[in-house]
Design goal:
Blueprint: E1 3-8, H1 15-27, E2 30-36, H2 47-58, E3 64-69, H3 73-79, E4 84-89, H4 92-109, E5 112-117, H5 127-135, H6 146-164, H7 175-183
Parallel strand pairs: 1-2, 1-4, 2-3, 4-5
The structure holds 4'-phosphopantetheine.
Amino acid sequence: MRRVVCPGSFDPVTNGHLDIIGRASGLYDEVVVAVLINITKKSLFSVDERVAMLGEVTKGYGNVRVERFHGLLVDFCAANGITAIVKGLRAVSDFEYEMQMAQMNYRLAKVETMFMTTNPLYSFLSSSLIKEIATYGGDVSGLVPEIVLTELRARLKDLSSAARRLPAMSWESHAGAGRLIGRFSHRQTR
Ligand code: PNS
């Protein structure tokens, strides 16, 4: 069986991710979408929430399985009989970092990386940008699946009303909102 892994943070999954996952599902017998458990990185959605959303939006493909992992991706690959990683390349700016990881993963365990050029409709998309635009009231419909849009609006509404319940503090200084804003200072993740 030709099995490939599509790894990432997916906080949250975007239509750009989904495009890559869908195209990979047409090329391989099975696509394992692997959500990184990273306790050092701030996230808007928990790993369980991200896995649930991914499961929902990929259920139509039939050969896509969603898992979580921690530690090295190559170890996850070895444990799951996976010999290749699939990644989307949005722009030249992605290339340097992705090439470094691809070469290291090959050096570590001879795991290959297959790059797909991102659909130009989504080449400007990243999860971080989606969160930032949505936080400030921008319209991200059409850029994320419908269920993600619903979850995103609900999560941001919760954080916004939590911030309003603390009148002495500004939106930015409220712990929840501050954490949320802080998230966007990270490297633009997929
Ligand atoms: O969506 P992201 O955050 O850009 O995904 C990055 C990810 C999860 C693919 C990458 O950080 C990763 O593979 N992490 C697992 C740890 C690991 O194997 N690190 C060495 C990479 S050479």
